[in-house]
Amino acid sequence: MKIRLTASALALGWALAVLSTAPAAAEEGMWTFDNFPIARVNQTYGTRIDQAWLDRVREASVRLRGCSASFVSPKGLILTNHHCVVSCIQELSTAEQDYVANGFLVATREEERACPGQTAEVLTEIVDVTDQVLAAGAGLEGAAFAAARTAEINRIQDEACAGDSRFSCQVISFYRGGRYGLYKFRRYDDVRLAFAPEFQAAFFGGDPDNFNFPRYALDAAFLRAYENGQPVATPNHLTWNPRAPQAGEPTFVSGNPGTTQRLLTVAQLERLRDQQLPLQLIQGSELRGRLLTYAASGDEAARVSVDPIFGLENSFKVWYGQQQALLDPAFMAGKRAEEAELRERVAADPALQQRIGDPWTEIEAAELAARDLAVPFRQIVTAAGGGSALYGMANAIVGVAREREKPEGQRNPGFDAAVARTRTRLLEETPVSMDLERIRLGFWLSKTREYLTVDDVRVRTLLGRESPEGLAERAISGTRLDEAAFRAAALDLNVEQLVALNDPLIDLALRNADQAAALQTEWGARVGVPSTRAAERVAQARFAVYGDNQYPDATFSLRLSYGSVQGWSYRGVEVPPFTYMGGLFERATGAAPFNAAEDFLASRDQIESRVVYNYVTTNDIIGGNSGSPVIDAEGQVIGAAFDGNIHSLGGSFGYDGSVNRTVVVSTAAVTEALRKVYDQPRLLRELGVD
Amino acid sequence: MKIRLTASALALGWALAVLSTAPAAAEEGMWTFDNFPIARVNQTYGTRIDQAWLDRVREASVRLRGCSASFVSPKGLILTNHHCVVSCIQELSTAEQDYVANGFLVATREEERACPGQTAEVLTEIVDVTDQVLAAGAGLEGAAFAAARTAEINRIQDEACAGDSRFSCQVISFYRGGRYGLYKFRRYDDVRLAFAPEFQAAFFGGDPDNFNFPRYALDAAFLRAYENGQPVATPNHLTWNPRAPQAGEPTFVSGNPGTTQRLLTVAQLERLRDQQLPLQLIQGSELRGRLLTYAASGDEAARVSVDPIFGLENSFKVWYGQQQALLDPAFMAGKRAEEAELRERVAADPALQQRIGDPWTEIEAAELAARDLAVPFRQIVTAAGGGSALYGMANAIVGVAREREKPEGQRNPGFDAAVARTRTRLLEETPVSMDLERIRLGFWLSKTREYLTVDDVRVRTLLGRESPEGLAERAISGTRLDEAAFRAAALDLNVEQLVALNDPLIDLALRNADQAAALQTEWGARVGVPSTRAAERVAQARFAVYGDNQYPDATFSLRLSYGSVQGWSYRGVEVPPFTYMGGLFERATGAAPFNAAEDFLASRDQIESRVVYNYVTTNDIIGGNSGSPVIDAEGQVIGAAFDGNIHSLGGSFGYDGSVNRTVVVSTAAVTEALRKVYDQPRLLRELGVD
Questions:
Q1: 3-state DSSP helix/strand/coil percent for chain A, to nearest 5?
Q2: CA–CA separation, B206 and B588 (whole Å)
Q3: How much is the mean pLDDT over chain A?
Q4: A585 touches chain B (CB under 8 A)
Q5: CB contact under 8 A, A285 and B289
Q6: Chain B contact set for A454 (CB, 8 A)
């Protein structure tokens, strides 16, 4: 799943205020729609937010795969970020017709093209199911606990959606297990690309400017939701307002922040800092070096590498920023003080102490086990395949065959639905770069050998007597998984039949399956389950001590953030909140990635230089919020959030309103570009601004 | 400078015993030859080490650039590691005649080939100059302090060598400034390659087996020192003994450990852990990915990349192991306890407290400044050029021109000698891969922009309106610095004349010169000088509290380590001390890097399978010791140290005799290979084993 949010200044220091877990500081918070602090916001900003306002915004808010978006016309037109759809644009492109480089510019609705695998989900209902979920695990341990929980969650989901494919139902954990919510979505599976600017317009400044501001990026694109071949009617869309934002005006961001880790315990943060992030940074860097060098080897290599490199560099910057935050002694001292306070207050109340126990120490023990298991768990389970799309398919096919061989009662609940979803995914005809597949698979095998050592039995199981590179070459060149029909047929085979296929990539996935399952079981028993059970009691302790006036960690579920248009100052430097379209041409050097897009250069004389291009607000968002509508007090959309500034990266662990900023592309700039650069009268009409 | 030592098991845990700075544990220590614990060793091992024994070993010990070695015949024949001379072998090779792949196998002395830039130095005299050096800085601060120290050190060196080019004189800091020693060396500048096995024999198992054991590597080579065109007479060489080592027998390693950091304060270790090592690991990984992908692009690319990739992967593993040691909470707790104890004992003695003051707090302040300065200091000063050989030359030429323009009194002391050394180096005709130059220079520029940000004035000074890749391409393609004559001529020019050359690489070095000088000044004033002054007092505190029975941190100066042939056990696994030549063929899979070398395969039937190949000892060594003779109680050479095991990597910060091991290639195996694999009767004769 893509969790994307794109903001650069790695060398800057980190000055994160440590939030108290008690009542949130002004403007902090990724609030659920059923617990939004309406009164506080109206009092602070003089706004008139009410339930009807919230419902309207919710109904117009769209969850994409890994991103956020909103309906902005009555005919299912969806505003999101270019970087949220660039992988679709890349898939629709060929060496001859490169929509990434040239933009996706069509004159009629009929020319809109389906984005394979994309979905648009609108949240229609929230039901608290905390009691049912917590009850399901009571009295059980280890794998039995995990199975009971999963079964209950699947039961709730299945019952709520009742097999109606127009909906999706998801039980989501909030407050690290303090609450469980059933989220029901109206779901659209036919999502088409309606408009995308040139990559160089959307991503001007590239990785160096990513997570940076001032910024000059048209990181916007339009999709459209279809059903039965027709555009979906969306009367509850947001009104498009192409006006310039005003300094200080209140702004609301509705979207799906992916993950924050503000409620983790100190022991969890320390392992993140000492083990997980270093490993991600180190391995990610080497893969980055491999991909960049490959991309420089030719035009086609460069073309197919655009999205993978963007994704990796974006993640790298996020991890680096997170690591810097966790390495700040003052920040960690704050986290320690906060945890100590909560533990003291629990200890001071015998009844509460009795109910909560000592989940912090339980988590410490789980983290100690995790330190031993994490490297093999990563290499054999979570990072298996190294991002090779074909290996992912092989692994899915093998997983289904293995599960099917179990007696019915022992199969994963929801198995049939999972198979159906897998089939749909396997049938999607998406282009696969065999070069990139070789790079990714070979990289995974090579790092697995490096980190587990050549004499590890799991490494020997994977490699036999082959080298990582040799095996990757043989498996990718020899597999037939690049044919959708072969994949679909393979999904119906049992393990024995899969073996008989003699497909080298399926064979590799088969070889890894037992050892991956063993590690998953061990991780669950020693880390996963104990952490889940303990975290639930930490959350209960927080509710007991600080009350309900809290927002949960981000879980890629719909949230509303409030804030205002504001620049910031850091180490004596004032950063104003706006950039203007004319500024693009001043910043452009002509050398990539600081070359202005060709269509922008061609339209330079027509573009109004004083149109606000990008701006920053104090809204509290994180990766996954990309594409979120930025909404004014009247409920109209005035921009799309596409990034955070460099200080926002510490936002994973805490929000500091003095420097943490959301970066937005204005509706004013999008409108100006549709009119002057990309000549899109039909979209301007649909947005009501022709 | 190459500091090489090559041992793999990144995923292993770390169990470092924390050494007390008080009397060293048995077998711990990199002892100077003027403070070797003769009595303790003789008592422990029943040996009869005396001053004559020490003198003989010292006179046979050779310091190479970045490595160690020994004389093993009366005619200047030098034993070292293959990996210490692989860059020479690479330089002597061409696409047609690849000595790296095929080995350097010649039948006569006349065919031996000079290794450009290599030197062989034999330590002849040690003089304590502590009082003179410490007196020179007294009463001064900042730049004046640094200048006074440098001047005094240069004066001592110049006076000792008196311009005699057959000697080199170096004032070396010991105990982090607790002692200063004048080391006088007999120096040989004409060092020629006499023998090298195939790379695949020397480095069987490649990076995966590096820092690993059991091991099957013929990491040995022979050089020869010449003077006036003739082999140097070396009557005081070590006797070559081709016998097998015995389990438990005492072993001595004489060589030049490069750097240890066992005496750093906690504040210094923490910045190393939190800032310096992470940055090295992350940037090193990306460069590794770039080089590996480049090397896979063709045969010639693979050929020229062998040594750069070996060097980088070796360094990466060292940094990773160091980082794991510093991330071990128990290890750091031990360091903290040790520091606290020393501080308490100083505080308990008013006179001592008066003399020592609080250098620990002074170092904390310097480290705080270093946290701010380190990233720009690295990118603009220490890592400038990214390892591009041509940029290094440009920078040297620019540095000389800038220094020459200063009034004579303000010039660096020893300027003329430095210019002469630079001229010699610039005149060396070594092949340069323009592809690798582009990769390195482009990587440096790109990371500098990434870490300092695109809007940093120093980045703008470097790049102007160019991209890192574009500038690297233009500078490397356009420079004439690949011509030795051009380099020599440029060295005589002043800055104005250099500018007039319009050489794009010299221009780049000129653009960086001012900002690099400014950062060096600031670093010296805020970090370097305060740390030096404080560390001297920490060292004095240690002497006062614990006495003189200590060894200093490694400083790439001659040391003697004692120990014995021993395997180890870790987490219940027993590792025996020996491998045998027959084991090579069992471990070989045929897939690189686990393919046996061709000449070995061809000679398989002749090779005696029970000859000890590699073995491990408890000697305390570190990178820079590579090539060191392993000497028995009789003073005969029985192997060459070429690696440490994975546990040795924490040896930078502390020695744990239960698991820290030196990895050795036996003289028995080298003899067997000279006889059966490489057919070198002349060398066998010279070694007295024909």
A1: 50, 15, 35
A2: 12
A3: 94
A4: no
A5: yes
A6: 8, 205, 208-209, 212, 594
Residues B537 and B238: beta-carbon distance below 8 Å: no
Q: Are B562 and B45 in contact (CB under 8 A)?
A: yes
Q: Of B292, B459, B469, which to mutate for an interface test with A (greatest number of A Cβ within 10 Å)? A: B292
Kindly report whether the peptide bond that precedes residue A214 is cis, defined as omega within 30 degrees of 0.
yes
- Indicate if the pLDDT at residue B566 is higher than 70: yes
Give residue for tokens 């669950």.
A524
B-contacting residues of A 323-362, CB under 8 Å? 323, 327
Mutate to test the interface with A, among B286, B439, B456, B460 (most CBs of A within 10 A): B286
Q: What's the whole-number mean pLDDT along residues B132-155?
A: 90
- Cβ-defined contact of B465 to A285 (cutoff 8 Å): no
Residue B613, Cβ neighbours under 10 Å: how many? 28
pLDDT value for B623 = 95
Q: Is residue A51 over pLDDT 90?
A: yes
ipTM: 0.91
User: Can the peptide bond before residue A552 be classed as cis, meaning omega within 30 degrees of 0?
Assistant: no
Nearest Cβ partner for B454 among A208, A283, A375: A208
* Share above pLDDT 70 across residues of chain A, in percent, rounded to a whole number: 96
**What is the least distance, in Å, from the CA of B431 to any CA of chain A?**
23
Min mean pLDDT across A340-349, A608-617, B89-98 is at B89-98
**Tens-place pLDDT, residues B32-64:** 999 999 999 999 999 999 999 999 999 999 999
Closest to B281 measured CA to CA, from A441, A453, A280: A280
Cα first-last separation, chain A: 36
State residue B147's pLDDT score: 87
Q: Quote the CA–CA distance of B32 and B17 in Å, as a whole number.
A: 23
Q: What is the average pLDDT score of chain B?
A: 93
Instruction: Quick: pLDDT tens for B647-688.
Output: 999 999 999 999 999 999 999 999 999 999 999 999 999 999
Distance of CA A2 to the CA centre of its chain: 4
Q: Which of B285, B275, B302 is nearest to B367 (CA)?
A: B275
Torsion of CA A445, A450, A452, A458, to 10 degrees: 30
Write the single-letter amino acid at A525.
A
Q: Phi/psi of residue A306, each to 5°?
A: -55, -55
CA angle at B56 for the pair B53 and B58, rounded to the nearest 5°: 105
Tokens of B314: 């070796």
The alpha carbon of residue B590 is apart from the nearest alpha carbon of chain A, in Å, by 8
CA distances for B24 relative to A230, A278, A558, B40, angstroms: 81, 33, 61, 11
